[in-house]
Design brief:
34% of the residues lie in helices and 22% in strands. An 8-stranded parallel β-sheet has the order 14-13-5-2-1-20-16-15. It has a 5-stranded antiparallel β-sheet with strand order 21-22-23-24-25, with helices on one face. The protein is built from 21 helices and 25 strands. The two termini are 40 Å apart. It is α/β, with parallel strands linked by helices. A hairpin with a 2-residue loop joins strand 18 and strand 19.
């Protein structure tokens, strides 16, 4: 068991803003102007900037090409300015995969078997050698005994067939998104690779391009009377194949570990305090073992990454959604890691709907008794977690929670497309609370009095409502856009005049500056009626007392200094 005390000198527990670099005004420079407003002075101790701040292509930043700053959104001068404002940073590091546009993958496409990066990613057939049979398509189909405990996030095997410069097709492991695109061709393209006359080439090009527009792959095109040009045409199309997607990294490659350390060093240089480890649980893989939370592979990976992070004074925050009953939060805490409180968002809504402190108190006591250090939140760039609540709430209570948020305009996200296996609900937190100012203020007050470091989604701060138009414009799979509305700088600044926003800022500023709070401070959970919640923080003689009524959505906060004098009253 590792000692969390070593993190206490690194990480502070003050509130943390959470936004994309283009969430307000379109650039990080605009967000800095927002943070520089008088109303936000001393409100935030840190800032979690989502990964589109880097050079990325897909998934709103979570498909990273490299960890250089995205020049469209951010500059080194912006990071220097945030440091001057005494705002520490939190960044994402995606351990499992990199974009196909990364320099390492592009080197494979250019140099094939001669690329030094050919095993930077996971060659499928080498991984499964001796564990299955080769198929006509050229990849190994693993025997059932070796994949029975594996979880694949999409239909079929997680493979991307990669064309080498010599035309050879090599399968690589691809857990997440992939897309293969083919360029349109014209008559002159065909005349360069075949002995074909212009008029024939022009007609064949139209047949090919029409088939491509219909979504057909080159091998599925019906060539008709032009069948003699089939091979040359398919070779031409495949040679100009382009990819989008995220390729799994081979953590057995020394080059990957060089990449890991170089990235952590770079993020530290940007001013990082916390590194959120995204998709870490998919990285360790072994034939016959689970490919998600592989044990002991997952813990060995985290341990090695932590050793690197320690060199650069970085605190790791492994991000994982799992059921409460699986106790993954406890395992992470036992290993000395900061973890996410994915339970709090749903528990607060449940407490309001059922007018009871029962589960909030149970969870608070557990964090204290088991020394679980967390980053907590209300809303975030993702949805409101539901799967995580299994074991804390009953199935019936979770279903009521789902129905409530959906009735208020939210969308249910099923687990990887599997019906009736809920994962999260997508909604702004304000809309999930019925767009009730009193509820939002009480939720924020509960958050800052719960154990942990409060993370604040920018739309929550500004009482943002569900954006159904953004969902509609995003098309299929665009449900998350309901809570990702980009605001103009002037629009965001105007919202600072709203009473519900000003009162949240007052609470957060109090939380950031009053010394009763912190990972070293003492939280007392006081006796109260079921519809009430009474919490008290103490540290070095300073006391912050919180008394809330979950039924009327009212609360009082009284803070006294070491002399017993009242210094804050809400």
């Amino acid at each position: 068991m590792k000692d969390m005390n070593e993190n206490k000198s690194i990480i502070k527990s003050g509130p943390m803003l959470n936004a994309y670099p283009d969430s307000i005004g379109g650039t990080l420079d605009d967000i800095i102007k927002f943070l520089d407003k008088d109303e936000l002075e001393d409100v935030f101790q840190s800032f979690y900037i989502l990964p589109s701040v880097f050079n990325t292509d897909l998934d709103r930043g979570f498909s990273v090409i490299d960890y250089n700053l995205n020049k469209m959104y951010a500059s080194k001068e912006n990071l220097i300015e945030l440091k001057k404002m005494n705002i520490a940073l939190k960044f994402d590091f995606v351990l499992n995969h990199s974009s196909v546009l990364s320099s390492q993958f592009q080197d494979i496409l250019k140099n094939g078997e001669n690329s030094r990066y050919k095993e930077f990613f996971i060659p499928w057939n080498k991984f499964w050698d001796g564990c299955g049979e080769i198929t006509e398509e050229g990849y190994i189909q693993p025997d059932a005994e070796y994949i029975k405990d594996m979880f694949f996030r999409k239909p079929g095997l997680p493979i991307l067939m990669v064309r080498m410069p010599d035309g050879k097709e090599v399968p690589y492991w691809n857990t997440f998104y992939q897309e293969v695109k083919y360029e349109k061709i014209d008559a002159q393209d065909l005349m360069k690779v075949s002995d074909i006359q212009y008029v024939s080439a022009d007609r064949l090009a139209k047949i090919v391009n029409t088939s491509m527009n219909e979504g057909k792959k080159p091998a599925d095109i019906e060539f008709g009377k032009f069948d003699e040009y089939r091979k040359d045409t398919i070779d031409l199309l495949e040679s100009r194949r382009k990819y989008l997607g995220q390729m799994d990294l081979n953590i057995k490659s020394p080059l990957v570990w060089e990449f890991y350390e170089d990235t952590l060093k770079k993020l530290s240089g940007y001013g990082a305090e916390i590194i959120r480890l995204d998709a870490f649980a998919y990285a360790p893989k072994e034939p016959g073992l689970p490919n998600f939370l592989n044990d002991p592979g997952t813990w060995n990976l985290l341990g090695k990454v932590k050793d690197l992070a320690d060199k650069y004074n970085l605190t790791l925050l492994p991000e994982i959604h799992s059921k409460y009953e699986d106790k993954m939060h406890e395992k992470l805490a036992d290993q000395g890691y900061l973890t996410y409180d994915f339970f709090l968002p749903g528990l607060i809504i449940d407490a309001f709907e059922r007018n009871t402190n029962e589960v909030l108190i149970r969870w608070s006591k557990e964090m204290l008794e088991k020394d679980i250090k967390v980053v907590n939140m209300l809303g975030c760039h993702d949805g409101i977690p539901l799967l995580d609540l299994k074991g804390l709430l009953t199935e019936e209570q979770i279903q009521v929670l789902i129905d409530t948020v959906v009735e208020r305009g939210g969308f249910v996200k099923d687990l990887h497309g599997e019906k009736n296996l809920y994962y999260q609900v997508n909604a702004t937190y304000y809309s999930a609370l019925g767009e009730d100012d009193a509820k939002l203020l009480l939720a924020r007050a509960i958050q800052i009095f719960m154990p942990g470091k409060p993370q604040v989604w920018y739309l929550d701060l500004l009482a943002g409502k569900n954006d159904h138009e953004a969902v509609k414009n995003a098309g299929a799979g665009g449900h998350k856009e309901i809570n990702r509305t980009n605001l103009q700088l002037e629009e965001a600044c105007n919202e600072l005049g709203k009473d519900v926003v000003l009162k949240q800022l007052s609470l957060l500023k109090f939380r950031n500056n009053f010394p009763a709070f912190g990972f070293d401070a003492e939280l007392k959970i006081l006796e109260s009626k079921p519809e009430s919640l009474k919490l008290q923080w103490e540290n070095n003689g300073c006391i912050a007392a919180f008394d809330a009524n979950l039924k009327t959505h009212t609360f009082n906060i009284v803070a006294t200094d070491e002399k017993g004098e009242v210094v804050y009253n809400f």
